[in-house]
Write a structure and sequence with these properties.
Elements lengths: L1 H15 L7 E6 L3 H17 L3 E7 L6 H15 L6 E2 L40 H11 L4 E5 L4 H9 L3 H4 L2 E5 L13 H5 L1 H9 L6 E4 L1 H7 L2 E2 H8 L5 H9 L1 H4 L4 E2 L2 H10 L4 E11 L9 E5 L7 E7 L1 H12 L13
Helix pairs in contact: 2-3, 2-13, 4-5, 5-8
């Protein structure tokens, strides 16, 4: 009897293809120097601190065009020694072709315009990002966390193509938008760049599945001096940080303080205890007129909400988290699986 049970369990594990009990993460990004740090954090946390398993990266235009974004993802995985992780190419424009042109905050190539020639990059997969997102949601049903740190075009399209997509996820974590105030009065880039996609996602969201990480809250709670970024965090003698400093060279020349959404979103996904307070909200986005791309947000009881919002964040603990993770460097690649 025990032998039969063992055989059944063995067969099940072979069919499912993954015996790793950790949550699985896909990072949907528009790399971007800020995305670079986010991806590095996720990979280093997995390798050195037994973090969730990064199963794929998906791309979309945003900080730069999608061709550059794809190449940047290839470059990041090469630097991290993780070319086993598959890349799936995604949106080149917004859902209804109202794409907001990038101001190239991180340089025209998205990575500081260093001009460095990168060779022997592993090719992206043939499947599209949308197809991959849907298939991974089936492969890792109830285990998969998708973290978006660019536009929501790929995720919105997946939700349109497959209405059951969101229900199969463990969580969808969205780095986009603002809780608007006199201080945060404009539209946030990720939300505004494809406002229709943002609208599709939140209109189909529920607070048990979808958490918003607004840039406004990062600005309010996770703001650090430029000197700390350059001298302390940037002063760590690792190959990863050497390149990260290059990737942020253009953006750092424009900044008086350091406040980055994308690494914060990934960090808060990996370490939920870095969030001091969540709130529930009716959240959406304005699609027409001069306020297009601005979020609407009303805090309500959970039963009336469509999203959960990471509202208050732990400043000192996040700062220490960055130091603890980014002091590590890349290891050799580990095995992964494509779909």
């Amino acid at each position: 009897m025990f032998k039969s049970i063992f055989v059944c369990v063995f067969v099940f594990l072979c069919v499912s293809g993954d015996t790793d009990p950790r949550p699985k993460i896909i990072i949907d990004n528009d790399a971007g120097g800020d995305d670079a740090m986010a991806v590095f954090i996720a990979l280093l946390y997995e390798q050195h601190l037994s973090g969730p398993k990064i199963v794929a990266l998906t791309t979309g235009a945003g900080n730069t065009d999608e061709d550059n974004v794809c190449r940047n993802n290839q470059w990041l995985l090469k630097l991290a020694g993780r070319e086993d992780i598959p890349i799936y190419r995604g949106a080149r424009k917004s859902l209804v072709n109202t794409f907001v042109k990038s101001k190239y905050y991180y340089g025209v190539d998205g990575m500081g315009d260093s001009g460095e020639k990168i060779v022997d990059l592993v090719a992206p997969q043939n499947k599209s990002a949308v197809t991959a997102l849907i298939e991974y949601s089936k492969l890792y049903e109830g285990e998969l966390i998708i973290v978006t740190i660019g536009t929501l075009t790929n995720v919105a399209t997946a939700m349109i193509v497959d209405p059951d997509f969101l229900g199969r996820l463990k969580q969808l974590h969205i780095g986009a938008g603002h809780i608007h105030s006199e201080i945060h009065s404009g539209a946030e880039f990720n939300a505004r760049t494809d406002a229709e996609a943002y609208h599709v996602v939140v209109q189909n969201a529920n607070p048990d599945k979808v958490t918003i990480f607004p840039f406004s809250q990062v600005k309010d709670y996770l703001k650090y001096t430029k000197e700390w970024r350059t001298d302390v965090l940037g002063g760590m003698k690792t190959n990863i940080m050497h390149y990260q400093n290059k990737f942020e060279k253009v953006s750092m020349s424009k900044e008086n303080v350091w406040e980055k959404l994308d690494p914060a979103v990934v960090a808060l996904t990996l370490r939920p205890d870095l969030v001091e307070e969540y709130r529930y909200a009716k959240n959406d986005i304005i699609l027409c007129g001069e306020e297009r791309g601005m979020n609407t947000n009303q805090f309500v009881a959970k039963e009336d909400a469509n999203v959960r919002v990471a509202y208050a964040l732990r400043h000192e603990e996040y700062q220490q988290f960055l130091l603890d993770v980014l002091k590590h460097d890349a290891n050799s690649a580990v095995n992964n699986r494509t779909v």
